[in-house]
Structures are given as C-alpha cells and as structure tokens.
Amino acid sequence: MALTTAQTCNSRLVAASATIASGQTTSAAIEVNGLAVVGIILPAAMTGTSLTLQASVDGTNFYTIADSNNTNVTVTYGASKMIYLNPQITAGVESIKLVSGSSEGADRAFTLIMRPV
C-alpha cells in the first residue's frame, strides 16, 4: 500500500488524510514520522461505530495499539466529529493505520491532526 504523507497546516500542527475504501476496514498507512496523533476528524457518514489504531515503527509491520493492561485502544464515535487522542498513544511511531469496526459502505476520508512530542 502507498503511504500517505502529512502536510503542515500551521507552525505547530500537521494534518494528514487517510481513506478507508468502500468494502474495507483498514486505511493505507499514514506516515507520522514520530509526530503524535492528537486528533482524528471523522467523515460525515460512517458504517462502523468504532476505530482502532495500528502502529508501525518500520513502516512495514503493523500492530494494534493497546494500553498497559493489554486493552486495545478503541475510539467509539459518531460521524462529523473531531476525536481527541492522548498524544502518548502514538508518540514515537513511524506510521499509523485506521481500522474501522465494520466494512465501510463507501470510501471514508479522515483527517489526522498531529504535533511534535
């Protein structure tokens, strides 16, 4: 899969787009290059009602992010929202994938908001 590269949106924040294709559950990899993901802007319509995150330190091998209790980090949401994420969740990773709880009924575009840690 091709990586999606982040774009600077102001002096402190960086935005990157991610798409989960119709019929799929997982986005392409998004390069975050050690930046922390602090928010996810959700599309106006969603099939799934939760997202999990996968992270990679090498851009090739992806693992579901879990907390220190071995519980997957899951975001439950409604459409057209900006979800805040604790920066510690993704600090220090190379790439992120978004995983929907259900196969999406159409292409779904997300925006990740990142900042240096």
Task: Give a structural overview.
The chain has 117 residues and is mainly beta. The protein has one domain (7-115): Galactose-binding domain-like (Jelly Rolls). It contains no helices and 10 strands. It has strands at 7-8, 14-20, 30-31, 36-41, 50-56, 63-64, 74-76, 82-84, 95-100, 108-115. The protein has a 5-stranded antiparallel β-sheet with strand order 1-2-10-4-8, with no helix packed on it. Strands 3, 5, 6, 7 and 9 form a 5-stranded antiparallel β-sheet that branches. β1 (7-8) and β2 (14-20) form a beta hairpin. The N and C termini lie far apart (27 Å). Mean pLDDT is 89; it is low at 1-5.
Total helical segments:
0
* Structural Rg: 13 Å
General form: globular
CATH fold node name: Jelly Rolls
Tell me the major beta sheet.
Answer: 5 strands, antiparallel
Reading side by side through the largest sheet, how are the strands ordered?
1-2-10-4-8
N/C terminus separation: 27 Å
